[in-house]
């Protein structure tokens, strides 16, 4: 039996693919198995191919592979779309009584399980449960105890009444019994369960959870794929912690609402995707110049323009590093795993307030919409630390006033960080502006003051470089001559690729970079390496360019930009070939 | 402290660079008087402005203030107010800032009905860029960029506001100091989004919509038996193309501001030293 099991349900958008997939993923997670999910979806509400894939193992899984063991095919196209991943012995569950499926031919070597999904669902109480019948059938094929499915069904339908839960449980059993009775085939799977308790969540949810944990009270955003889940997560939850979500009229408004809340002293955030960052860039400059702490989350999708909204890409790096007119300090954080989406969000709020500057937090679509299991301790809230930086109050404001008793929000300091007075603080009334300003925040065109303020703002970056830890996450063989560098969601596939490469006697040292700016100095790592390969999901190698600039050394590149994330086995092959080239 | 506050406490020590005779002096003075009269002080007041001559106001007033980007002062003001409802929030803009680049935000700020005051210094021209047509310029108003006039009807800000569900609409004239301050004060006291369009003449570039023009043509609604709570009367006054007026034209007494409607009534500036109590429940949801 293989160490991991790969399952998928596919059909048309509107077929309930997403919720069915999620129920199965939760059942596996509740059975103490690790789960990693991925989604193929199109940018439309109904129709169009869509699939939800689940990879599961007893050991942690953090990527997808090019293999599918059991496929629930609700449409003929589902089989076509997955032909590459289906293999000899793969099981395809389908409803042969469904008009569109009656002439389906199961590819040679694969096992077609014809299960009357709709008819059995109707017997259990309603045709709508046909996907759950299929889940029951899958349980039988995988030898997975169906009781685990029950608890996932309770979670999903519990709020809608016991009758519905019972009907669904029965539907699942009808699917299971049908396979058991009609097919005497011995399947190759035996999904074992453990006593572990895991949580299952995606990157957008982890970002939202991180924001609440960090004390974020205000969120303004405009819906956009694939960032909307952050907003949907916060809505209805942040209120329990004294916060509020505003759905703005556009991204320009969203960032300005968030800016206003931040000026009022709230920990404040907005999230969007690339096209939204384009619109926000005007105000981004104001946020930086007015030295307002703000977390701006960019969940990258495939660009440019509207590009491929539901597909993976890491194409926004240049915009995040350099976007906007003029020169303003910024931090750019890029979580590399779903749990890091949580922790980097917490860190983003601390950096924003400590250095009074906007922080871009960028996740890619693959991190945002895929789910992974973690032990709950991974999100230990006791580990969350809040640092608000230099906030003054009624008692301490005096030391930051000039001889006329005026508060100086842009006071020149050695570390580049000025004091902050939240509105309402006595004797603290002050203005700030996107115009160049003096220490009081008032407009100036004085050439000396200009230099002082620019230097002061830029000094924050130098201070942060010294005071914070910008280390990468390191994997593989520390002594290897082969160095692989990547960012974002590629880490999961790369970590698994390392193991696959080992099997072929290729050793690599892998640095996964979570900080795009400021950056860890790679010069030393480069000196130790003979070959350097930079892995990223874009066509031109934006991060590779940046690294070459930093280190004055040429690197090799592995780029993928067809809209699909790296798969572990594919990446291992690409790395091997690139090293050999 | 508030009882001792005078309107001059809202003045900064910076000398305005507005042209001598600019309507914006009077507009600003009226805002400061209204703030003082309503018991506010500089430390609980937040003034937001966009770009243009009107955008300079934060520099000349003494309060917490942000001078933002063109057309986007309204969402900033809403963010400030929602994050700290204890603050008095006043947003200032010009006719270009508010009805052109910021028109989208205007419509939605009106709909959102956050409890703040929006004062538009309407001089029917772009002053700071030296005299181009604005969205409230007359159809035949000749400028450097519209030699034959814009040849499009001007935006009717009040009609736009009314159609967007405004709960308070007023108009005033910057040089009628007493009346202007009184109207802004009513906007501040209104529960919800108080919108005041102020005729604030540009003495340098607009030789049509002058002080004399407004003095001669302005009708005061208070002397007209106008009932601002009568929606139809408000609609008629707003759509009357032959009438320039000052006064409160429409006030919805049933207005419930956004914050109250959504339960956003607490100061959000304080956070715990670690994750908030109950945060671990957020993790358990994912079991």
TrEMBL record, chain A:
Transmembrane segments: none annotated. Residues 13-175 form the Pyruvate/ketoisovalerate oxidoreductase catalytic domain. Signal peptide: none annotated. It holds the Pfam family POR. Residues 210-455 form the Pyruvate flavodoxin/ferredoxin oxidoreductase pyrimidine binding domain. InterPro entries: 2-oxoacid/accept_OxRdtase_asu, Pyruvate:ferred/Flavod_OxRd, Pyrv/ketoisovalerate_OxRed_cat, Pyrv_Fd/Flavodoxin_OxRdtase_N, Pyrv_flavodox_OxRed_cen, THDP-binding, Transketo_C/PFOR_II. Keywords: Oxidoreductase. This is 2-oxoacid:acceptor oxidoreductase subunit alpha. It comes from Halogeometricum luteum.
TrEMBL record, chain B:
InterPro entries: 2-oxoacid:Fd_oxidoreductase (IPR051457), OFOB (IPR011896), PFO_beta_C (IPR032686), THDP-binding (IPR029061), TPP_enzyme_TPP-bd (IPR011766). It comes from the Archaea. It holds the Pfam family TPP_enzyme_C. Keywords: Iron, Iron-sulfur, Magnesium, Metal-binding, Oxidoreductase, Thiamine pyrophosphate. Residues 51-198 form the Thiamine pyrophosphate enzyme TPP-binding domain. Its cofactor is Mg(2+); thiamine diphosphate; [4Fe-4S] cluster. Residues 130-153 are annotated as: Disordered. PANTHER family: 2-OXOGLUTARATE OXIDOREDUCTASE SUBUNIT KORB, 2-OXOGLUTARATE OXIDOREDUCTASE SUBUNIT KORB-RELATED. This is 2-oxoacid:ferredoxin oxidoreductase subunit beta. It comes from Halogeometricum luteum.
